[in-house]
Structures are given as structure tokens and as C-alpha cells.
Amino acid sequence: MKKFGIIGPGAVGTAIAYALNQSGHIVSLFGRSHSTVQFQEYNQNEQHELTVHSLQEANETVDVLFIAVKTTQLDSIIPYLNNVIHSNSVIILTQNGYGQLEKIDHPNKYQAVVYISGQKDGHHVTHFRDWTLKLPINDYTLDLQQSTQQSLLNIECLEDYAEQVWYKLIVNLGINTVTALTRQPAKVLNAIEVKTLCYNLLVEGKRVAEAEGVYFNDDLENSIMKIYDGYPDDMGTSMYYDMINNRPLETQYIQGYIYQLSQKHQLSTPHIDSTYAILSTFQ
């Protein structure tokens, strides 16, 4: 049986650990120090306690390692990866934003497109919706899919991985930007002016994707706005929670990643340009 490890006892990492643990897998959840974290489904009372082990003190390797720290925290945990991986381990980077995978010196590394929504408050994680990780298709990811198919975790191995990456980038571009800037959860989209801004960000994000050779249907923006409509009013985003808790933002790897490509292609993206400029001041 494979041994699984997850670095990062936040909303995504704890959800992955819970999903695998519930199906009987051997799972270790790693963080800065030894502690515990409580996991709970949204609108349910039952809580589940998971043990968090110190990554710095770890000395047993795992076969599959999910790295679920924020983009702003990756550099701090890289020196300790060899504590928990062996030469044939598979590493799955599960974080919002792109441009960091090359920092990990290991042959079997892949970045997931993450659809797991939740929030962490202190040592308590609330899971809102979804259990999906989308990965490029190859022998390693197909083996991971097979190994986890009886768990809550939904691993998808896709031929159109590049399109999936851009789709999630654009989804994050809209909702993360407006919730962070306004310091309000999803209910902020009830304001027509904010909803219009969000829509325009999606339009420009699609324009950048097309310049990179990734094309979507004409109704992409409306379909994403409908997804946002399904969010609970009190559901936040990772950047919203970072903003209200005065933590470093992932701007460089979401809005900044798209902004830099817009500049490379000399595109007109005034909404991305202006919102990125403002968010950059909160680093």
C-alpha cells in the first residue's frame, strides 16, 4: 500500500489528508510543528481531528507527496523535502497560481489544478465544496488515480491539461481579485459594480489565454459567473482570507502571472493591469 504525505495543514492540505484517511490509506500530514487540526464539512456538526507532524523532524519517506502550502510559503519548505521523499516519490503541487514547479528538484513532479474549497480559522478547517485535483496524463498520474479511486479525492488525468490550467487561472483571477480588494466574501458579487468588474477580468483573462494558444468557448465568462452564483455568500477565497488576516498574498502567481503574459503579448488588459497594481501594494 502506498504511503501518502501532505505538507500544509491548511484548507486544501487538511481536506486531502481527510479524504485519504477516510478510505484507510496511510497518511501523514506535515506542518511547522506537532499539533492537531479539526476538519468539518460546511453546515455539518461532526468534527474530525487529524494529527499534524513536524516537517523539520520527519524521517520517514512517502510514495506520494502533496505540497499544499501557499505559493508564498513554498521556498520555506523546500529544504525539508528530502526528509519525506525518496527517489521514486511522486510530488503533486496543489496550490493556486503557477510558475513555481521548477523550484522543486525532483523528476516526478506535477502541478494539480485544484478544486477543493474551504477555509482555515486557527486550528479548524471548514470544507465548503469539491474534492478534485486535475493532472496531466502519464503513467505516474494514472497510477495515482488508480490508487485513490476508492477515496473521496477525485483525481482526473487529462489530455487537455493546459486548458484546465488556464480555466482555473481565469476563475481565480475573477473571484480572488474582487474578494481580496473589497475584503468581502462571495456576497460582494451582489453589488452590480463589483460583478461587472469581475466579468471584465474574466474577459481579459481569456484574451491572455488565447494569446498563449489556449482557446475557450464564447460563453466562458458567463459560465464562470454562474459558478460564482452558486457560492455561499459567506464563502471566501484564499486571497480574501490572506487579506483580512494580513498575510502575504499570492498575487505574483495568479494576477501577476497573467499580467506578465499580457505584457509579453502587448495586450490591452486595463482591468488586470489596475487591479494587479493595487494588489501588489499589499505584498
Report on this model:
This protein is of the alpha/beta class and 283 residues long. It folds into two domains: 3-159, Rossmann fold; 162-280, N-(1-d-carboxylethyl)-l-norvaline Dehydrogenase, domain 2 (Orthogonal Bundle). It has nine helices and ten strands. The chain has helices spanning 11-22, 74-77, 139-148, 161-182, 192-211, 220-229, 238-244, 255-264, 270-280, and strands spanning 3-7, 26-31, 35-41, 47-54, 62-67, 85-93, 109-111, 113-121, 124-136, 154-158. The model has no long low-confidence stretch (mean pLDDT 95).
Q: What descriptive keywords fit this protein?
A:
2 domains, single chain, ten-stranded mixed beta sheet, 283 residues
CATH class of the largest domain, anyone? Alpha Beta
Separation of the first and last Cα atoms: 42 Å
The CATH topology of the largest domain: Rossmann fold
Q: What does the radius of gyration come to?
A: 18 Å
Which structural class matches the secondary elements?
A: alpha/beta
- As a percent range, the share of strand residues is 25-35%
